[in-house]
Fold this sequence. Notes:
This protein is of the alpha/beta class.
Amino acid sequence: MHLWRIIKLNYLRVLTNKGITILQSVQDYISDYFTKNNEHLSKFYPGITSSRLLLAFSDTCKVVGSDTYLGQGFEFFKDLERGKPLEYIDHNAYFYRSNFYVDKRVLIPRSETEILVGDALNIVKKNYHEEYSIAEVGVGSFAIGLSLLMDFDKKINLWGGDISLDALKVAEINLFRHQSRLHPEASVIIEKSDRFEKLNHKVDLIITNPPYIKVSAGKVGVHIQAEIYEPKIALYLEDGEYDLWYDDFFRDGSLKLREKGLFLMEGHEDCLLDLKEIAIKYFNHVEIKNDYTGRQRFLHASL
């Protein structure tokens, strides 16, 4: 590799307060930046480390020898000052056991949602048959459904729907990225669908992380980054339509399940008990499960 290309990969031109331009290693620059801006970083990026910051910076500057390298680099620091989520800056989110492409068109997958994947995997292993089918409603980045398929080395039919065409474009990116890790006989269909609108067959398992925050809650309990940057359509429901929306959702979901089918959903701790009362109208058994912090987070329902 040409010497200057190596320098551009590992060093930054830095303008000192004396007006002198020097070359400084990327690692040293990030380390200095992290120390000087620790209070701001801790506010917007709780638990962030210098190593994670370095990785995010490197991911935004991958084009070897590109003249835009420094421009990308300095835009990176502007985004940090704005408090833009790191996952939207470097377009990378680690979830379950894989990295997924994300941008502002989809929610950033959270670690607690990994519980949903783990529970779904246990259910699939216990009840598997050759025509086993899963529906994911509101795929977003497709991190949930693809994580499930990548961790189960048998044929599965997976249908995924989302009301947002923008979200489906991100899902397609991740499907293409991880296609080689799926079982060769796995069948995956993703399409624009308002909840179960386009699902025309019955399935064994429904998994979903739908919008579950009431608009009246506003910014209460919602991190400022999520409120500013993440897609509102995937976060909020109007208060007046909340119960009716879920009544329709549970009813339609129960009708799309095969005998002994299961429905797994992530929800909001303040609403799950009320939603359980709605779900029990359509399912024989409904239970609530906690997340890592002991908060009520998941609803499991079965026929």
